[in-house]
Amino acid sequence: MDLPVPTDRERVIGLTVPVPEPWASQVRSARAAAGDPLAHTAPHVTILPPTLIPADGLPAVTSFLGTTLTGVPAFTVHLAGVESFEPVSPVVYLALTQGARECTDLQARVRSADGPLCGELRFPYHPHVTLAHLPDHRAQDRAARVGRGIEAVFVVEHLHLHELGADGSSTYLRSLPLGVRDAG
Prior knowledge:
By secondary structure, the protein is α+β, with helices and mostly antiparallel strands. The chain has helices spanning 23-34, 58-69, 100-110, 137-147, and strands at residues 10-18, 44-54, 75-84, 91-98, 128-133, 152-156, 158-164, 170-177.
């Protein structure tokens, strides 16, 4: 995983859709079967990839996200099927057969030009759940074999905000609810 390198006046955050149990354990098992060193990472769909913000910018970002997510209704994600980003990136992943449009819309809202999280993406946005991020094709095949047995359907009612360490570790900061605007 490529992470931006923060200065002492910056931090790296990310925003995700958490994959709930029992499927989260199944995804971790697929990553472990492949020997992926990030198998312990909480399975998720990335909404905001690792992004630099000022070290003191978290309150403003959290406020922006709270406002941005107001009026975004809960939605269903259906994970099924294994795909790959090869040859662009050595990633094997679970595809979203439902919920991809909503995730794409969310990431566009979160990264809007008038917000504190705007910026260029390294790769075009494609919602997915990583099964393995390894250059070894045999390891990718092992993850894909396990991943083919995973099919998940769940409702997304909140996103998770994380701080990311230089070592790839992720510290949960808070849950941000999706909400429906008051009619009155």
